[in-house]
Amino acid sequence: MMVTLERLLEYRIVRFALSGGIATAIHIVVAFLYLHFIQDSVFFANVIGFCLAFIFSYLSQTLLVFKQNVNWSNATRFFVVQFGSLMLAQGLSELISDLNSYIRVIVVVLILPVITYIIHKLWTFSE
């Protein structure tokens, strides 16, 4: 079992999926807790969830997925990509504003990984 896991982790896309899955879980848990305990504002729930997931995501993707050093250059590009995709996702969330708030959060966190992987691979962490 461990040998299979080690082989899978050799692939960047697998490490990205694992890192992104954990970041997505952080985003969802934080956003849902915000919606439940603080206020029913999808915008603020997603912003708070994004911020905490961003920190984890940047560090794990820089060090584990793309195996580069943490620095201001890629941190800035990483933020631009993540923030841009968040704004795109938030716009989509507003387009489907008739749906339940929790469903809207799920929609947001499902579209972010596809967009961000492509841009991070081609731009943020390009070699």
UniProtKB/TrEMBL annotation:
Residues 15-125 form the GtrA/DPMS transmembrane domain. It holds the Pfam family GtrA_DPMS_TM. It is a multi-pass membrane protein. One of its GO terms (biological process) is polysaccharide biosynthetic process. Keywords: Membrane, Transmembrane, Transmembrane helix. It is found in: Membrane. It comes from the Bacteria. The keyword Acetylation does not apply. The keyword Membrane applies. The chain crosses the membrane at residues 12-37, 43-66, 78-96, 102-119. Signal peptide: none annotated. GO terms for cellular component: plasma membrane. InterPro entries: GtrA_CellWall_Glycosyl, GtrA_DPMS_TM. Belongs to the GtrA family. This is GtrA family protein. It comes from Vibrio qingdaonensis.
